Amino acid sequence: MSEEKEEEEEKKIDYSQRAQWLRAGVMGATDGLVSVASLMMGVGAVRTDAKAMLLAGFAGSVAGGCSMAIGEFVSVYTQYEVEVAQIKNKTICEDVQMVKKALPNPLQAALASASCYCLGAVPPLVGAAFIRDYRTRIMVVLAVATLSLFVFGWIGSVLGNTPMLRSCARLLLGGWMAMAITFALTKLFAFTGLQF
Prior knowledge:
Helix content: over 70%
Largest sheet: none
Strand content: under 5%
Order of helices and strands: HHHHHHH
Distance between the termini: 67 Å
Radius of gyration: 21 Å
């Protein structure tokens, strides 16, 4: 009896409504994690001191969180205005208010994206904060980022009812590529003779 109720409840979940805030949250957390970990890896490619890595990670967290909030707000608000205009062209005024409630909320999307970005930035910052040895610190940032990417992929797959392996693989490969490219290009840039 309880299994039937669970199946019935799952059928009632509106994944399209959930997708609006889920996309903003997962994108924000993943972007915060990958951006900050990549910044820290890039700085770590040319500087061995922890202070430089942590400062770059913190600045990236603040700047990225602000950028995500305004970008998400503008994007969702534009989508909202387009959908409202389209609704007004197709329906009568009484229906407009009911339909507006189902539309994406720009402020909610901005807050979800910015807060999730900052939360995503925490693991590599905390992971590197207590490690003095340069090589160990780089490996800890990579390990913490890898574990966090897997967890974010798993959470996204559960909340979105999507295949877990595919969700995790996408995040892991994308995150690893971003960190590797940032590390390699920063190292290459340093080899050109510029002083840091």
